[in-house]
Write a structure and sequence with these properties.
- The structure is a single chain.
- By secondary structure, the chain is an all-alpha fold.
- It has one domain (12-115): Substrate Binding Domain Of Dnak, Chain:A, Domain 2 (Up-down Bundle), CATH 1.20.1270.360.
- Helices cover 73% and strands 0% of the residues.
- The chain is built from 5 helices and no strands.
- It is elongated.
- Pfam families: Csp.
- This is Four-helix bundle copper-binding protein.
- InterPro entries: Csp_YhjQ (IPR005560), YHJQ-like (IPR044543).
């Protein structure tokens, strides 16, 4: 691929990567939470995982195509990621800890998008 064609997305790459990683870890955590004995106690977290995964996928897609709405989408993504990190942090499982970390990193990257 021509390097000139890739250059415009370079400014988004760190955030795009964080969103993709967060989406993946939310999906994995969702699956693992369904296998935990306290599924009912995780209901809010599970719903947040689904929302977070979807918003992260949308944000990554918007950045890849250089949408005119990246600021708004990334702002929403940061809000949803913060909420998901907060919910995941309530549980001590390794998958929840890893997901919460990815959500926090994604939220931080999305907030940086406002300054671009």
């Amino acid at each position: 691929m021509n390097a000139t064609l890739m250059a415009p997305n370079a400014q988004y790459q760190s955030c795009l990567d964080a969103c993709s990683k967060c989406m993946q870890l939310c999906q994995e955590c969702f699956r693992m939470c369904l296998s935990e004995p306290d599924v009912k106690a995780r209901e809010h977290c599970i719903l947040d995982l689904i929302d977070c995964s979807e918003v992260c996928a949308t944000a990554a897609s918007a950045m890849a195509r250089r949408s005119f709405h990246i600021d708004h989408i990334c702002n929403l993504c940061a809000i949803v990621c913060d909420e998901c990190a907060s919910e995941c942090s309530k549980f001590k499982d390794e998958h929840c800890r890893m997901c919460a970390d990815a959500c926090r990193q994604c939220a931080d990257e999305c907030r940086k998008m406002k300054s671009m």
